[in-house]
Write the structure tokens for this entry.
Amino acid sequence: MIEVHELRKRYGDRLAVDGLSFTVRPGQVTGFLGPNGAGKSTTLRMIVGLDHPTGGTATVNGRRYRDHPDPLRQAGALLEARSVHRGRTARSHLLALAQTHGIGRRRVDEVLALVGLDTAAGRRAGGFSLGMGQRLGIAAALLGDPAVVILDEPVNGLDPDGVLWVRTLLQDLAAEGRTVLVSSHLMSEMALTAEHLVIIGRGRLLADTTVAELIDRVAVGTVLVRSPRAGELRDALCAAGAAVTTTEAGVLQVARADATVIGELAARQGIPLYELTPRRASLEEAYMDLTKEAVEYR
Ligand code: ADP
């Protein structure tokens, strides 16, 4: 479990994180979303003790990360800046990390196999592709068999195979009962991976919600109407202040009037309706709507 309470981080005169509070629970993948510069990486760095908060607290399994005697067993993280010695092989990189944390050799081979690097274990990390580098970073995060896994933009730059692999891995880790927090600026990818979403903009919490709730929250505000007397209905709606567009004969897209208003107006005029459908937002649209101001401000 990760608990963030009134977390704040100031860089000079800029508040990168501005009073964030949220809880990340075990057993599901939580997506951490926001436009570039929203404060995601800064928040993740504070959770794992790489940055000092200006105010507030961030705890992992009930304690500040660096107060744990066995931090790597509590939480494993892949943060954006990867620190791999380019001349070292994948195995020796992980072995060095394991040795400083009292983790055995066998676990190194286990995580290498888990991320599909067993055959590349003897190659120098400096020659790795972006995808292999990400796999090595994830292997390092999983080395301590941690209850909490934190990944910052893990699919950045990966090919479709790699993206699918990360998605499946994250879901498996969550199914094992771990707490999984994964950041992204791409709603479309998170929609497929995460059950729960924490969305921030300009360092502030915009939403802490499930994917389904987020879609319901955002009204797109248009209604699709099908009628054999569409022209007449269109005139009546426009006269009533609605905005109407037509894309095909007999079909209207109506804005500035909801389904109730349209239905009642049609009934009063005796115009039959074949369809009256408020359009649901796609997750992408819901996200755009939510983060619109945060982006515009920048
Ligand atoms: P995100 O991960 O959501 O893209 P970041 O946490 O990287 O956002 O950045 C949030 C804000 O804090 C940005 O405006 C960024 O420029 C600023 N920032 C991040 N790290 C530093 C730093 N070390 N020094 C100064 N400003 C920083």
